[in-house]
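Notes from the 1:1 (GR / supervisor)

We went over the backlog. Supervisor wanted to see one worked example end to end before approving the batch request, so GR pasted a single chain during the call. The sequence is below; no edits were made to it. Supervisor asked that the structure be written out right there so they could see what the output format looks like.
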Amino acid sequence: MTATKAVRALAVSEPVVGDDQGSIAISSSSKEDLDGWFLREVMPLDAMLRRYIARSWREVSERSDLLQDIYTRVYVSAQRERPVAVKPFLFAVARNLIIDKVRHVGSVPVESLAEVPDLDVIDDEPSPEQKILAQEEFERVQCAINNLPPRCRDVLILRRVERISQREVAVRLGITEQIVEYQLAKAMRLLTSALYGPREGIIAQTKRYIAVRGRN
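Structure output shown during the call:
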């Protein structure tokens, strides 16, 4: 299990809006913290997105700005509605933005649009290197859980791994349901911070981009 799947397995479950036609479904925004959602759902796709940009955009010096523009569009969109299928949504935004940029670069022929990789070229089959990285991520998850405060760890495991009700957890641990709820939220914050803390800079930069655009 990768770090991404482990964190999602421990996350608060929400109903999923299905789409029989396979299109990118959108769910209404929940009360969940937007930054936490972005860290847990979007940032684990960062390496894959960078590879996609590298295949799609020749100017190496412009790739960082392109990446930031993609994240900005996703973040702004998620402020209104959270995508249910995050990965297809992210890469649809990426491809559409790249196509828009190609169209607006006068020196680039329209035929270059055909060179933008289709979404179906995104290969989910892990390479040997990715399998090693997945194992390392799993170990990071285990370490992060082990380093949680004892009460937080107990509540997290009982509620999100064993799927025991909040009331039963309270009875087992001899605490109130309010404390169970508080400890679970604390555990999720600590776990997300331990796994994705270094990536929070991207969110801060995205917010700066949004603020600058709002003033223009």
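Supervisor's comment: The chain is about 65% helix and 5% strand.
Batch request approved.
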